[in-house]
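Lab notebook: predicted structure, single chain.

Context: the supervisor wants predicted structures on file for every construct in the current expression panel, including those that have not yet been purified. This is the next one on the list. No modifications to the sequence; it matches the entry in the shared construct table.
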Amino acid sequence: MTNYIVPVILLVTALIALHKKENVYEHLLAGATDGLKLLWTLIPSLVLLLTAVTMLQASGAMDMLTSLAEPVFLFFGIPPELALLVLIRPLSGSAA
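Prediction complete. Output recorded below exactly as produced.
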């Protein structure tokens, strides 16, 4: 069933556009252009975040933070395995 959702949406959109006699190709190009502009603005922050997380993991700082925070997590009933996610989430926003 889920394999058919995207093709059905595309087909319905194409049929609606044909009925309205609009140029879907121009709208598609405009959307792709906007998407690429957004991607271009997001790439530097993504590279910076991934580099910082990799450096923290490679230096052992993440392991140290996890071991220091483990008693607090256990006190609140949070599994210590989620410590990295809880510590990284405020830095990355919804990306984590």
